[in-house]
Amino acid sequence: MLDLEERVSRVFNPEVRPLVREAHRCYASGAARAAIVLTWTAVCADLIHKAEILKEDGESDARGLVEDVERAQQPGQADAVNIMLGIERSILDIAEKLELVDRTQKMQLERLREDRHLCAHPSLRPLGELFEPTAEYARAHLAVALEAVLVHPPSQGRKILESFMVQVADPAFTFDAQYLGYAFFDRVRPSARAKVIQFAAKFALLQIDDPHVTIPPGMLADRMALCLRHFAERDAALATDCVARHADRLVKADPAVQLAALARLGDLPAFWACLPEALIAQFNARVEGIGKAERTGALPAQEAKVFALVANAEVRTTLPALEGAFTALHVSDRCRVIGQRPNAYFAAHLPGVLEEVGSFDHGQFVARTAVLPCAGVLTLDDLRAVLRAWWDNDQCWGRAMPGYLVELYAATAHLGAQRDAVWREYLEELREYTPTFNEIARGTGLVEVQAD
Questions:
Q1: pLDDT digit string (tens) for 268-316?
Q2: Residue at which a domain ends, from 92, 118, 150
Q3: DSSP 8-state secondary structure symbol assigned to residue 308
Q4: Helices then strands (H, E): number in the chain?
Q5: Are 11 and 144 part of one and the same domain?
Q6: Which of 64, 137, 239, 386 has the highest CB neighbour count under 10 A?
């Protein structure tokens, strides 16, 4: 059941909040008529305040209502009561036009208005038949008013959507989950929230080239995917529904767009929940083909992102060709894949890629691209295996490699004191190679530097 006290504390307008608290006290004490009258009074005051804010923001549809209120408030205005009665009659129509309420909410609030009149004017009923609403009836009206109007800022669906696009398409955009949730999830009405999530899903899936946006379509799609992922954490069912609305368009999209969507959204359950089996089969065949393809250059970043999904157990099940295709890649391409999504899954592959290092330059590439990014997810056994493979391959000891070992030591701090024991054993094996030993000993501080 809706927690009314919690909702009352969230009423947006602090000037209206006392009215709502009084309505709640009336309901709690059994004064149902008073609760209904005060609830309608709070709704009117709140909608008028929001119309004033929207008028200041340039919303022309709010101007007439605000001007009528100002006219009624003028000193000596003899027709003030009639003006305000007219405002009460039209305020819900205007609120719907301003997108402060939707059609269903307007109908619910119209019922509140009618019941307010029955509570305030017994003469509207046949003589001797008082309108006697129950406490639960009053509670229902208060709950509707809170959810439809009172807890929300003066946000309009189209303006919320415009604001969302401006924020995400800004060249200086920085993803902030707390701000995103506050501005476009927590403080907007459900209908506007759904529009925002649908919008994010559309751009994340289809990589739309909007002529009004200055950043590249791929960058915008990646940003929208970050937002969609956050929204899915807050409401998985709504996110799934929003993705499903655009799944058919993805089926007909360019293959490059399909692959990009898989790369950026492949770890999102809502993505797979909406895809037809035919498209999933196509993705599987595409992955298999990429794995078998002969190439002279590096694996493209987009394809590396797709292969990095192999770290996700559910994706491995959905795309059975993925794991075999990943292991069949050239060692350098496997490192590029690992670097895209460092994960505990890849820890078992690190000793193997170190064993395949064939030159000093290649060793530096492997350490920098695959080993160091995964350092934070290694277990003690993983660390031992990596250090052993590093030791056993003499091509892992050139140029910057001792410095990379110092970085690896620092990045495995999560392993605690047992890490130091592993590293001390390793340093003892290195003791006869004085320059290398000293560089690592000095960098880690685990043992004394020895004389040359």
A1: 999 999 999 999 999 999 999 998 888 778 999 999 999 999 999 999 9
A2: 150
A3: G
A4: 26, 0
A5: yes
A6: 239
The reply to whether 133 and 31 lie within a common domain is yes
Q: Which domain holds residue 104?
A: 4-150
Confidence of residue 247 (pLDDT cuts 50, 70, 90): very high
How distant, in Å, are the alpha carbons of 11, 17, 25, 322 from that of 5? Answer: 10, 12, 10, 52
CA atoms within 13 A on the CB side of 149: 35
Tell me, yes or no, whether 112 lies in a domain: yes
Residue labelled with tokens 């064939």: 358
Within this chain, do residues 53 and 32 fall inside the same structural domain, yes or no?
A: yes
User: In this structure, is residue 307 part of a structural domain?
Assistant: no
Q: Would you say 154 and 100 are in contact if contact means Cβ atoms under 8 Å apart?
A: yes
Determine, yes or no, domain membership for 365.
yes
**Which region holds residue 174: left if phi is over 0, alpha if psi is between -120 and 50, else beta?**
beta
Query: What are the structure tokens assigned to 127, written together?
Result: 């003589």
> What CA–CA distances, in Å, run from 201 to 42, 55, 169, 245?
37, 32, 15, 9
Residue range 422-445: average pLDDT?
91
Burial (CB count <10 Å: 0-12, 13-18, 19+), residue 91? buried
How much is the pTM? 0.74
Backbone angles phi, psi at 195, to 5 degrees: -65, -40
- C-alpha–C-alpha distance, residues 311 and 349, integer Å: 11
Report the distance separating Cα 263 and Cα 307, nearest Å.
Answer: 8
Instruction: Indicate if 41 and 99 belong to the same structural domain.
Output: yes
Q: Are residues 163 and 268 in the same domain?
A: yes
CA 284 to chain centre: 27
Farthest-apart Cα atoms in the chain, separation: 111
- Smallest Cα–Cα separation from 34: which of 176, 149, 135? 135
